[in-house]
Design brief:
Elements: H1 18-32, H2 41-50, H3 58-68, E1 73-76, E2 80-83, H4 91-96, E3 99-106, E4 120-125, H5 133-148, E5 153-158, H6 164-176, H7 183-191, H8 201-214, H9 236-250
Parallel strand pairs: 2-5, 3-4, 3-5
Antiparallel strand pairs: 1-2
Helix pairs in contact: 1-2, 2-3, 5-6, 6-7, 6-8
Length: 253
């Protein structure tokens, strides 16, 4: 990319050609090496050249990049990321963190901005003041299936990044540690990695109900009757319990 003396280099990362943005991300990974440490002016100039920009644009590149990374986004254990609504709107941030799936929980559908980069989206529209108990299972399944692909990270976001999105991440944690992770333990796990957890009473109740479902034991394998042996009839109560247990067995992530 070239620039005349009267033109500023293009710092609109959302519109950069994919190879150019990938080159910038590779350079940032090499410089930061797992931690966003302050870079020297020379390092920013080198990054500018690597990204196809004039060497003298290093300072402008620094300002533009750091502004993108001011968004509220955190990495959690297991390739899960969480943030507010703005976290999903930066193409540079998504590509840098290798985010390939985005789950967005808000009052309106989100634009699938980075679908052309191979990002898969799921939107759960929830009106203000309402919750999404009926959608929780699908949200957890989306996160689980995204991580099973092992080709990138999944970002879960909502308006503030610490309520509905946190509930989904906690439910996923509880599901992957079924029978060994309570709502309280999931909240402690979350707080150890990100501050600001903000669950209202309805979200807590939703997670407690989810915990009860997870703790229902799987139904035992049915014993085959010996030749000539008649199976004992089941009582209505036993049939109902087996139906619930079978539904839980069918909930596979």
């Amino acid at each position: 990319m070239s620039s005349s003396d009267d033109e500023k280099p293009d710092m609109e990362f959302d519109y950069w050609p994919t190879p150019q943005l990938e080159e910038l991300c590779s350079g940032l990974h090499a410089c930061w090496d797992g931690a966003m440490v302050a870079l020297t002016p020379n390092q920013w100039r080198d990054l500018a050249v690597r990204a196809g920009l004039p060497e003298e644009s290093g300072e402008e590149l620094q300002s533009a990049v750091l502004e993108e990374f001011e968004r509220d986004i955190s990495s959690l254990e297991g390739n899960v990321m969480i943030g507010d609504g703005s976290a999903s709107e930066s193409r540079l941030v998504a590509m840098f963190h290798k985010i390939k799936h985005i789950l967005y929980i808000a009052s309106h559908p989100m634009d699938e901005l980075w679908a052309k980069d191979g990002v898969c989206y799921k939107t759960v529209a929830v009106a203000a003041g309402e919750h999404f108990d009926a959608e929780l299972e699908g949200c957890v399944r989306f996160v689980s299936e995204a991580l099973d692909q092992q080709n990138g990270k999944v970002l879960v976001c909502c308006a503030d990044g610490n309520s509905r999105s946190a509930a989904v991440v906690m439910a996923y944690r509880m599901k992957t540690h079924a029978g060994a992770c309570s709502v309280r333990q999931a909240s402690e796990w979350y707080r150890a990695q990100r501050q600001g957890l903000d669950l209202d009473d309805q979200l807590i109740t939703m997670l407690e109900s989810f915990q009860q479902i997870l703790n229902v034991p799987k139904s035992p394998a049915k014993r085959k009757c010996a030749p000539g042996e008649q199976g004992s009839p089941e009582s209505p109560g036993k049939k109902a319990m087996n139906k619930v247990a079978n539904q839980i067995d069918d909930f596979q992530l």
